[in-house]
Amino acid sequence: MTTTIELGGKTVNRLGYGAMRIVGDGVWGPPKDHDAAIRVLRRSVELGVTFIDTADSYGPFYSEDLIREALHDGSGYGDVVIATKGGFTRTGPNRWTAVGRAAYLRQCILMSLRRLGVERIDLWQLHRIDPETPREEQFGEIKAFVDEGLADQIGLSEVGVEDVQAAQAAGLRIASVQNRYNLGDRRAEELLDFCTREGIAFIPWAPVDAGTLARPGGPLEDVAKQHGGASTSQLALAWLLRRSPIMVPIPGTSSVAHLEDNMGAEGIELTDAEFQLLSDAA
Ligand SMILES: NC(=O)c1ccc[n+]([C@@H]2O[C@H](COP(=O)([O-])OP(=O)(O)OC[C@H]3O[C@@H](n4cnc5c(N)ncnc54)[C@H](OP(=O)(O)O)[C@@H]3O)[C@@H](O)[C@H]2O)c1
Questions:
Q1: Where in the chain are the domains?
Q2: Which of 98, 121, 176, 233 is the most exposed place for a label (fewest CB within 10 A)?
Q3: Tens digit of each residue's pLDDT (9 = 90 or more) over 114-145
Q4: Confidence (pLDDT) at 105
Q5: Per-residue pLDDT for 2 more than 90?
Q6: Cα dist. 56→7, 85, 188, 217, 276 in Å?
């Protein structure tokens, strides 16, 4: 199984880390334990993570600030790709509103550049397409980010095949999409197949949420027993990595123990029969 992918201008490990869980409850405010958040970020890189997903709206801003504090080496992030997002405003804990006006998107990327301490964002993702703003305005401004060298690559989030095609038709080269997808929620299957054919990285969020498949006595637990008591999170991630070579899961956690558990998924090779059993279980 291929363990790496070209993304954000670098060759990265396909098992990444999602930095949404290192901030306060409701993805709002600072983390309860600042030092623990820093430890999780540094441990992720020690364990081989080279793709970290964040967004300006995580906190807002705390996630990007913590990444810089934990991982910036004075000139940048070395081999590690930091993928961020913009276009989602926050009006309180667990509250999100898409704003895709060109001026706002430009402010998003300029402020992410400043916070992350880089001259170019490796992978900048539009967090949501704003239904209230013409798409041409959003896609046109984002294309300018690449043309001006503010972003190396562009991704979309929570989209359908038609959205990706519309962005491509507007002249955007889409390097990645990020949709909710996991063992228990396969609604993005058509998009995943499209991305696999097109060679677009697919970044599934909520990757360890296997829903009822992870229940005691469920199919994940059965397969886990065959793998020396692997955790259900590890199996959910191993299934994703096996599902497509363009899959880049970004499990999110605020805990070093859970991070270490998740990274253990790399050592799990599902048999064809196990992969099929889990694929058919949803
Ligand atoms: N594009 C979007 O719209 C969007 C939306 C949501 C998220 N995201 C991105 O996707 C990333 C992943 O999504 P997510 O964080 O919502 O879901 P997730 O990675 O599937 O699950 C995170 C939850 O599971 C727990 N967890 C993680 N590993 C575990 C383990 N080994 N054992 C037990 N519990 C574990 C975490 O709690 P603990 O902290 O206690 O470990 C956390 O509550 C986010 O961090 C973010 O970067 C993107």
A1: 4-209+245-251
A2: 98
A3: 999 999 999 999 999 999 999 999 999 999 99
A4: 98
A5: no
A6: 20, 6, 24, 40, 38
Pocket test for ligand 1, best of 49, 205, 209 (most atoms within 8 A of CB): 205
Q: Is 58 a catalytic residue?
A: yes
Distance, in Å, from the CA atom of 248 to the CA atom of 12, rounded to the nearest integer, reads: 9
CA separation for the pair 169, 163 (Å, rounded): 10
Check pLDDT > 80 for residue 6.
Answer: yes
* Catalytic, out of 17, 58, 62, 77: 58
Atom nearest to 257 CA in ligand 1: 31
- According to DSSP, the residues that pair with 179 across neighbouring strands are 204
Residue bearing the CA closest to ligand 1, atom 8: 205
Question: How many CB atoms are closer than 10 A to CB 13?
Answer: 20
Binding-site residues, ligand 1, Cβ < 6 A: 18-21, 53, 157-158, 178, 205-209, 231, 233, 250-255, 258, 261-262
- The DSSP-derived string for 58-114 is TBTTHHHHHHHHHH--SS--TT-EEEEEESEEEEETTEEEE---HHHHHHHHHHHHH
**Which residue among 208, 213, 232 has the greatest number of ligand 1 atoms within 8 angstroms of its CB, and so is best to mutate?**
208
Reply yes or no: is the peptide bond before residue 93 cis, omega within 30 of 0.
Answer: no
DSSP lists the bridge partners of residue 149 as none
